[in-house]
């Protein structure tokens, strides 16, 4: 499973997995998502391997899955996790202007190195 840590990786994931950048119709491209974790922060305490030994709750993160659904019932028959991104980071990217990003990929990487 790919761990997305910067905006350019998320943009590439979008290009590779959606027929357009319209996330409102991600299910049409056989993508599903779920949120795991308890803390709504972006301190670098996820995924679970990076959180071992820390006395902090696992940060909330979105896990994207490739799914195959039953044509008639819509039930998920097969689900494969393909990527994950920190939820607070994803919200920060959604809120910032593409012309003036405030959350630089280098900042995220350095935070993870210090805390990991």
Q: First CA to last CA: what distance?
A: 19 Å
Report the uncertain regions: 105-116
Spatial strand sequence of the major β-sheet? 1-4-3-2
Tell how many strands the DSSP assignment holds.
4
Q: Which structural class matches the secondary elements?
A: alpha+beta
Instruction: Give a quick account of the main beta sheet: strands, pairing sense, barrel closure.
Output: 4 strands, mixed
Radius of gyration over all CA atoms, rounded: 15 Å
Q: Count of helical segments?
A: 4
Walkthrough of the structure:
This protein is an alpha+beta fold and 116 residues long. It has 4 helices and 4 strands. It has a 4-stranded mixed β-sheet. The longest helix has 11 residues, at 7-17. Mean pLDDT is 77; it is low at 105-116.
Question: What is the compact description of this entry?
Answer:
The protein has helices at about 5-15, 50, 85-95, 105-115; strands at about 1-5, 30-35, 60-70, 75-85. By secondary structure, it is α+β, with helices and mostly antiparallel strands. A hairpin with a 6-residue loop joins strand 3 and strand 4 (about 75-85).
Entry keywords:
4 helices; globular; disordered C terminus; alpha+beta; 116 residues; single chain; 30% helix; 4-stranded mixed sheet
């Amino acid at each position: 499973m790919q761990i997305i840590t910067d905006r350019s990786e998320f943009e590439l994931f979008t290009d590779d997995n959606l027929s357009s950048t319209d996330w409102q119709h991600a299910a049409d491209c056989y993508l599903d998502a779920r949120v795991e974790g308890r803390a709504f922060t972006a301190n670098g305490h996820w995924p679970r391997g990076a959180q071992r030994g820390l006395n902090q709750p696992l940060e909330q993160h979105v896990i994207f899955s490739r799914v195959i659904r039953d044509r008639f019932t819509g039930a998920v028959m097969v689900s494969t996790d393909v990527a994950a991104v920190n939820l607070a980071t994803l919200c920060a990217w959604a809120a910032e202007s593409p012309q003036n990003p405030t959350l630089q990929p280098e900042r995220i990487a350095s935070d993870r190195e210090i805390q990991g």
